[in-house]
Amino acid sequence: MNPYISIIIPAYNEEDKIKDTLENIRNISEINEIVVVDDGSSDNTTKIASEVKDDKIKVFKLDKNRGKGYALNYGLEIAMKNADIIGFLDGDLGSSSNEVKKLITPILNNEADVIIAKFPPAKKKGGLGFVKGLAKDSVLELTGVELDATLSGQRIFKREVLEQFNEIPFGYGVEVGMTIDILKKGYTIKEVLVNMTHSETGRDLKGFIHRGKQYYHIKKVLRAKKKEWR
What we know:
CATH topology: Spore Coat Polysaccharide Biosynthesis Protein SpsA, Chain A
Number of domains: 1
Largest sheet: 7 strands, mixed
Structural class: alpha/beta
Radius of gyration: 17 Å
Low-confidence stretches: none
Number of helices: 8
Mean pLDDT: 90
Distance between the termini: 41 Å
């Protein structure tokens, strides 16, 4: 019997990309359910997502913007009812969302407990590498495992891994915190190179503010994890 696979897509103001993101995964035969959680968008994300007609797709809208962690937890409550395998995908992947097939295959082949998408190099210059370096070095320090894609939100999990978490952590440190916990609990992670693309933050004020928040949140998560796992 084939495992039941659910994909959770947290989306905030993604009216330009959400249709393409959904259209390019809904025909993947291994995927049984797609749970879109609109995180209180002020645009037409919910309307456009709902117009993609497929029995696999379930669209929910939160009453206000509550953050990615909250949206993922909301989606998990729905997905955990049936799923053996659960994936997280961002809503802004557009047509490159079909690359999720490269993540599904190794989890079905039991190559690891968690598969993380490793993106190609960014097309435009982003930050100075501080956030990525902090995440990578900290995971290595705490777990002894070297990973390149610790910040990637595109992940596929065996159900048993997610059952270890009472809830997904909130804030920009969610991926790093989860990665540390997963490895410390003895589960395995494999990175897979994909040709996914999504909205990139540049070297403008908005981009630096975003990365500043990321850095702060990751440092906060790391302080907690060092206490937790010492």
